[in-house]
Amino acid sequence: MVRQYKYEPHLFRRYKEERDYFSFLSGILAQDPDPISQLSREITDITVERYDQIMQYAEEGKPFIAGYFCAAPEIYEAMDLPWYMIMATPFLAASAPYLLGDIDGAEAMGLGTDWCTACRLSLYYIEAELTPKPWALIGLIHPCDAGNLLHQSVARNQKWRDVPIFATDPPYFEDQRSIDYFAGELRRMVAFLEEHTGHKLDLDRLREVCIESNKQYELWAEYAQLRRAVPCPHGWGIGGPQCFAAVQVFQTGKPRGTQWLRNLLANTEQRVKEGVGTIPNEKIRYFWFDLLPFGWVFEFLPWLEEEWGAVMVMEMFGFTPYTPIDIRNEDTIFKGLAKRNLYDSPMVRQARGPADYFAADIVRVVKDYNIDCVIWPGHMGHKDGSASTGIMREICNELGVPYIHIGLDLFDKRYTTPDECKDKVSKFFSAMGLG
Amino acid sequence: METKLKSQVLQQFQEATRSLVNPELQKWKDQGGRVLGCYCSYIPEEVITAAGCVPFRMRGTGSTSTELADACVSLINCSFIRHSLDLGLRGEYSFLDGCAWVNSCDHVRRIYDHWKRKIDTPFVHLLSLPKKVTEPQVEWYREEISLFKDRLGFHLGVFISDERLWKAIRLHNETRQLQRQLYELRKRKDPPITGAETLAVMVAGTAMPRQEYNELLRELLDDLSRAEGHTDYRARIMLIGGILDDPRYIDVIEDQGGLVVTDSLCFGSRTMWRDVDENASDPVTALARYYIADRPSCPRMFGDHLRRSAFVKDMIRDFNVDGVIAERLVMCDNWTGEQFMLGEDLKETGFPYIRLDREYLLTGVGQLRTRVQAFLEMMGR
Ligand code: SF4
Ligand code: SF4
Questions:
Q1: Are strands B98-102 and B34-38 parallel, antiparallel or unpaired?
Q2: Residue nearest ligand 1's atom 1 by CA
Q3: Residue B73 Cβ < 6 Å to ligand 2
């Protein structure tokens, strides 16, 4: 049975504040004629549009869902279901002024301090009714324990107990049997969504979405190749995270997203041709092997460029080799979606399975991108990554490239302060003779 | 609290928790027997028994530092894996002929990666354990168990026939039935065995040849049926959590007067509350169904929280429990989530509940004592 929820505007106050925050950013970027600012503005614009769409659907009583980038957003698009990520809230608005207060609010709920801050915040927003309640929820039970337990906690939370939930079960290794099984999980997800939203999946529409998203991934891959240039044409401010936002979240299988990637590519090609780097004097090319430190990104990453001439050439979300989906028939489409969402999707691809998978990424990125050092930020939520720090160090030793494990919280700058991080990294660069 | 018995069998079990290799296991090894380590209670131990080996649940017993492990993992990893990896790196697990994992949690699954690279054990295997408990997952795990069976059999040069598997299933079911009888005695107003002693009995069962263990356990049950019960307690406690293998932790609780009468622990009731179905069509399917769908699940299993919560509530009723203590190893996300959810469930019923953090080695005894005392007082005991 399809449910309906009655919405009171105060029920997603934080969500609206986030929308306003992005709208504000768009306004600032609009005034800057620099082409990179314009590329960024397009991303903030599509972000605002999704927020608006979700709020409008909520108010008008039309079905929308909460889902995930690694749980086949191509399907949500083909089913005409607007969606948002409950865990995106802490990521997207991480530099907003209320973040630290919200973290304290989560702690007061009894969620402890060693559980991933993104999870604590997501649960807090639900408990405090700050985020829109969807018709149905696609839970995430990989790549980490924290995400799995977050979604179980959401399912039992008093406020969302009536929201039907489904999660796709992730196999651990990469092989054909796992792809077949995960394709079955995606089919079960479709059945669940059809039941709880009343929207049906049309195979021809799904094929169209996959054709368009295949184009997007091809452009993204070309862009990733261009970042191999010395000097690197773009820094931390534009690149993988924006491609991810366009292709996997806000513009999956939509021509506007494809056009944005073409524009990005054109800008990059020109810069490479002219030998223009993101900063005038690139001295250190680093691989940031995690998400960006959203909670204090503006305090740390520009400093690395200015103080050390250190450029983020690649990060976890940018290095995601994709396989095009074979659109011949339903079977090939679902298996293609399974492979893409399980083995290619960022973070899930590196962290879900054995350490060999992320080890292989380090080797390829270091070799292909002329990397001078690997930084493992070691977000406090990424327990599996920090449990592999010895393996990362050994791989880097074999490659002859310096490695540092910082140990921080991507959201809460009180955990390891930006100054402490700067100090650690400075000592590391000096000791390694970099910069 | 201590139980006085005629036979030495309880001491024998207690002894087995204080070291990795107990005399029974040593005897087995001396006779050429093989031992396979298991990093989680989701590993189908029956397959290992059917292959002619003793399944041994991995512990960090005897570890005093994590110096070697700390070069591999970090301080945001749980102290159990740091201690057990450290022992492995020091060669303390050289008595193992193989070791098996499932992707239990973000910490344990990485031990597999380090072990493969650094520790020379003839056979290592990781089964891909689903995170849900419905039919497609039973089928997936059936295939995983089948692959494990074939690989282990090939490695050992043993054909693990259905007949051997059924025999192992019956033997393990027998263990479970005997252990349930032990728990049954604890329902009494005057339980004849303490919680700490029970944990020792359960841990010993994961480190001994099965046949011998069952015989010793039968002897213990016989002895307990005539023993005097414990009445000198202030409250009846249920203990909930993950990998607790040190009875001394429970000793601290019981010394304050909180008699632990039942549990939901990785070395406790969750491993034996149900039997593998001996009437199923084939043994591998029976095992898959048992491990995925039938036995009480642990927090990593999505979509099963209500059943886990009901399991706890049933226990509270059946064992006449006055209060629940949920313990967790610091940095464990699975149990953070479960403690929170269970707390919310029990809050709705107003039942006394406390959450405690701990490290794998027994430290902070004074603080534990204080917290338990305060909890008992809060209950008016
Ligand atoms: S630990 Fe990482 S993957 Fe898991 S919820 Fe937190 S940020 Fe996401
Ligand atoms: S205590 Fe938690 S983190 Fe440690 S091994 Fe067990 S489940 Fe994993």
A1: parallel
A2: A381
A3: no
* CA distance linking residue A65 with residue A134, whole number of Å: 5
User: What is the tens place of the pLDDT at every residue in A10-53?
Assistant: 778 888 888 998 899 999 999 999 999 999 999 999 999 999 99
A91 residue type, one letter = F
- For A420, residues 6+ apart whose C-beta sits below 8 A from its C-beta are none
pTM of the model: 0.96
A241-280 b/e (C-beta count within 10 Å ≥ 16 → b): bbbbbbbbbbbbbbeebbebbeebeebbeebbeeeebbbe
Token duo for residue A85 = 């990520």
What domains does chain B contain, in order, with CATH numbers?
22-158 (3.40.50.11890)
| Residues of B in Cβ contact (< 8 Å) with A342 | none
Please name the member of B72, B77, B131 whose beta carbon is closest to the beta carbon of A141: B131
User: H or E segment at B233?
Assistant: none
Q: What are phi and psi of B376, to 5 degrees?
A: -65, -40
The torsion angles phi and psi of A416, rounded to 5 degrees, stand at -130, 120
Does the C-beta of A142 come closer than 6 Å to ligand 1? no
Please tell me the CATH code under which domain A1-201+281-435 is placed: 3.40.50.11900
Query: What is the b/e burial string over B261-284, where b = at least 16 CB atoms within 10 angstroms of the residue's CB?
Result: bbbbbbbbbbbbbebbbeebeebb
Q: pLDDT tens for residues B135-154? A: 999 999 999 999 999 999 99
The atom of ligand 2 lying closest to the CA of B105 is: 8
DSSP β-bridge partners for residue A374: A287, A403
Portion 114-143 of B in contact with A at CB < 8 A: 114, 117, 126, 128-132, 136-137, 140, 143
Angle at B302 between CA B285 and CA B346, to 5 degrees: 120
Q: Using CB atoms, pick whichever of A145, A156, A380 lies closest to residue B341.
A: A156
CA–CA separation, A382 and B298 (whole Å): 21
Q: Which ligand is nearest to the CA of A147?
A: 1
Query: Cis peptide before A231, with omega less than 30 degrees from 0?
Result: yes
The structure tokens listed for A35 are 């082409």
Q: What tens digit of pLDDT does each residue of B173-219 get? A: 999 999 999 999 999 999 999 999 999 999 999 999 999 999 999 99
Query: How far apart are the C-alpha atoms of A51 and A60, rounded to whole Å?
Result: 14
CA distances from A398 to A321, A401, B190, B223 (A): 23, 8, 63, 61
Please report, for chain A, the start and end positions of each structural domain, with discontinuous segments joined by +. 1-201+281-435
